[in-house]
C-alpha cells in the first residue's frame, strides 16, 4: 500500500489531501489527489514497483485523434492504450516510449464537446531527451507542431534544445541527451 504511505507522509508534512485513496470511477486503479502550495492538483496512482517514480503527465486536448497522431509521428511515442468512458463523457489515450508499468506516460484526455482549454500561466513544459534536436524540430514541423525556439545551443551552457507547441498549444522541449548528461556532471 505505497499509496497510503505517500498520502500519510504528505499529511504529516502539512500537505493538503483533496481525495483520500480509493478506486477510480472508471476502473480499479487506486487514486488519491493532493494539492501543492500553489494550488496545483496532483493525482497519486498506485502501481507496482517501477524504476520510474513519475507515472504520467495528463494534457487535455480538443481533438484526440489529432493529438495521438501528432505524438506518434512528431515525438515517436507509441499509443499504449485508448479507452472511452461515455458515461463520464471522456476518452483518453496513453502515449509513451515503452510499457506503462516501467515508463512514464503521457495521458491525452478528450472531454466530450470541449475543443479548447485555457493554458494558464503556471504550466511551463514537458522536457524529452533526444539524440538530435535538429531532426526532432523537423519532425515537429512536419506533423503540425509549431517551433517556438529554433534548435541550437543555449547561451552559457551550450546544451542543444528546441521547443515546440503541439496542435493544442501545449509546450514541450527536446533536450540533447549527450549535452544534458554533461550538465549533470
Automatic annotation (TrEMBL):
Q: Write out the pathway annotation from the protein's UniProt entry.
A: Secondary metabolite metabolism; methylglyoxal degradation; (R)-lactate from methylglyoxal: step 1/2
Stretches assigned to coiled coil: none
Q: Recorded E.C. number(s)? A: 4.4.1.5
- Which segments constitute the VOC domain? 1-47, 53-177
Supply one GO BP term.
methylglyoxal catabolic process to D-lactate via S-lactoyl-glutathione
Per the UniProt record, one Pfam family is: Glyoxalase
Q: Which UniProt keywords apply?
A: Lyase, Metal-binding, Repeat
Task: Return the broad EC class.
Answer: lyase
Which GO molecular function, any one, fits this protein according to its record?
metal ion binding
Q: Which reaction does it catalyse?
A: (R)-S-lactoylglutathione = methylglyoxal + glutathione
Q: Which InterPro entries does UniProt cross-reference here?
A: Glyas_Bleomycin-R_OHBP_Dase, Glyas_Fos-R_dOase_dom, Glyoxalase_1_CS, VOC_core
Q: What does this protein do?
A: Catalyzes the conversion of hemimercaptal, formed from methylglyoxal and glutathione, to S-lactoylglutathione.
Spell out the family assignment given in the record's similarity comment.
Belongs to the glyoxalase I family.
* Stated name of the protein: lactoylglutathione lyase
Q: Which organism is it from?
A: Prunus persica (Peach)
Upper classification of the organism: Eukaryota, Viridiplantae, Streptophyta, Embryophyta, Tracheophyta
Amino acid at each position: 500500500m505505497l499509496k497510503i504511505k505517500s498520502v500519510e507522509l504528505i499529511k504529516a508534512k502539512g500537505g493538503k489531501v483533496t481525495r483520500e485513496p480509493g478506486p477510480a470511477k472508471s476502473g480499479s486503479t487506486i487514486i488519491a489527489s493532493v494539492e501543492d502550495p500553489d494550488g496545483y492538483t496532483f493525482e497519486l496512482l498506485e502501481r507496482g514497483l517501477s524504476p520510474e517514480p513519475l507515472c504520467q503527465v495528463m494534457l487535455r486536448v480538443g481533438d484526440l485523434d489529432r493529438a495521438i497522431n501528432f505524438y506518434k509521428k512528431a515525438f515517436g511515442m507509441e499509443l499504449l492504450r485508448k479507452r472511452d468512458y461515455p458515461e463520464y463523457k471522456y476518452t483518453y489515450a496513453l502515449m509513451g516510449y515503452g510499457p506503462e508499468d516501467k515508463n512514464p506516460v503521457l495521458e491525452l484526455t478528450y472531454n466530450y464537446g470541449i475543443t479548447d482549454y485555457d493554458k494558464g500561466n503556471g504550466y511551463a513544459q514537458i522536457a524529452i531527451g533526444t539524440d538530435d534536436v535538429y531532426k526532432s524540430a523537423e519532425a515537429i514541423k512536419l506533423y503540425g507542431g509549431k517551433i517556438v525556439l529554433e534548435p541550437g545551443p543555449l547561451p552559457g551552457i551550450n546544451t542543444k534544445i528546441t521547443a515546440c507547441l503541439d496542435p493544442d498549444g501545449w509546450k514541450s522541449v527536446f533536450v540533447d541527451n549527450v549535452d544534458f548528461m554533461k550538465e549533470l556532471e
